[in-house]
Amino acid sequence: MSKKFWLPLCFAIVFVGGLWIGNLLQGTCRIKGAGQQKLMEVLNLIQDKYVDEVDMDSLVEMAIPALLNNLDPHSAYIPAKDYEAVNSELESKFSGIGVSFQILNDTINVIEVISGGPSEKVGVMPGDRIIEVDGESVTGSKITTTDVFSKLRGEKGTHVTITVQRASAKKPLHFEIVRDDIPVESVDAAFLINDSIGYIKVSRFARGTYEEFLNASNRLRLNGATSFILDLRSNSGGYMEPALLMANEFLEGGDIIVSTRGRNVRDNQIIPADGTGYLQEAPLAVLVNEFSASSSEIFTGAMQDNDRAWIIGRRTFGKGLVQHPITLPDSSEVRLTVQRYYTPSGRCIQKPYTAGDFTDYEAELVNRFLNGESLHEDSIKLNKEDWYLTVGGRKVYGGGGIMPDLFVPEDTSYVTSYYRDVFNHGLFNKFAYEYVDLNRQELAKAKNVDELLNLLPSNEILLNSFVNYAAQNGVPRRWYYINISTPLIVNQLQAWIARHALGIGASYEVSNRTDNAVIEAIRQLQKPLVTNDQRNTNEE
């Protein structure tokens, strides 16, 4: 069966749903219920008889979210003015100048210049500080990330002039840049952890995620990877299709990936693997946590229920509702829940909610932490009556996220009040950026993480420099707590320095060296892929 076979279904649902909602809002659909008739009558009364003149379009803009908020937690309305910003991160590309930036000390700091992009072509460099865009100052406390996006992004082929300050230049530099398509990367890191295990971090399921994953996994295989760690921690989802295509690469033909059920029988689908996957024999570990949701859970559920991978970490978010985007005539968008999805064993992992009142739903993650679930496996409240069997006969449970095969608690061994203070002040990032900026010429000699770490000062000197920096930025020295947190502080500093010097992937190479979930995944990948005696974590 073709990997693209579910797309006609999606298009059909979007088309029919778009007609229905569009006609409803325009008052031209055939009214079938008294409630719908009453709604249209009230709108007409307001328009014709209300004491003051009313902007009916604005009234409808306020009414639509109220309607959707009485359905489920994930149906949503995207106004036309917000459509591009909301969707840009899930598209495979957007048009801009090709830099990653952060606003530090009220200034736009260029963190990374995308290789082959418009900015690299004209000579913009990491460490440059953007002070003007088209002659307008962009410094000061009022500048926001949204402001920067609005000024730097634009249609392909349009021109923008930026003025930058550079440490090595006596005067500001001016660059005229022609905007071009910029790829949106969703695979943040892909590298060999050892000679045979490849690590891939997927931060979201965007339109180009599947292609990125294929490129990354192929590159790792060519370099010797025979097994993989796929990190989906804090991946909140996105498009369903890339998750299905990725799952297809690991499963045998006929293995169920997911099934969907809607209000109408025509919406019910069972989606199997087609047998063309090139990673069917590769041992796999999947890392998840409480922020892994939606498409991440579809992939994870497929791997767990088919006994295909070790699922390692903490219980996932619990989003089992499928939204389809429906574009309305004014280019606004309704994301309407049209289906529930079910893992191969038949479980729906959507956590409970009350239609129209999402107070408990929104507080559920906080309650997990308060109940100690992130630290203690026995604090997890599973519904033992809602159980299912994997293809290998192991028990798994529905009703609120996916429980991993191997629970790895949040590591708080080195977390102290001092660590929280410097973390909450954003000082790791700020210190690392300034350190790299001051030592950029020397650090540029490093071609990989190991070479970079060899160029850094000793852990003791690095720690003391940071403690002094933190003290100058409002966090006083408290050596009792600093000594406890030293391993974590040093690792964070090295990871952030690696990120600013070599890119985001390098930061994972550093942080993974002390990451308990990654360490556990490496350990498990050295065992047989599936044995019921070894993998009975969820058994009563």
Walk me through what this model shows.
This protein has 540 residues and is of the alpha+beta class. It is built from 18 helices and 21 strands. The chain has helices spanning 7-26, 34-49, 56-68, 80-88, 118-122, 145-152, 209-222, 240-250, 295-305, 359-370, 417-424, 427-438, 440-443, 449-455, 459-472, 479-502, 504-511, 516-525; strands at residues 76-78, 93-96, 99-104, 107-113, 129-133, 136-137, 159-165, 173-178, 180-183, 187-192, 197-202, 227-231, 256-262, 269-272, 284-288, 310-313, 321-327, 333-342, 387-389, 395-397, 406-407. Strands 3, 4, 5, 6, 7 and 8 form a six-stranded antiparallel sheet that branches. Helix 9 links the parallel strand 15 (284-288) and strand 16. Helix 7 packs parallel to helix 8 and helix 16 runs antiparallel to helix 17.
Sum this structure up briefly.
The chain has 18 helices and 21 strands. The protein is an alpha+beta fold and 540 residues long.
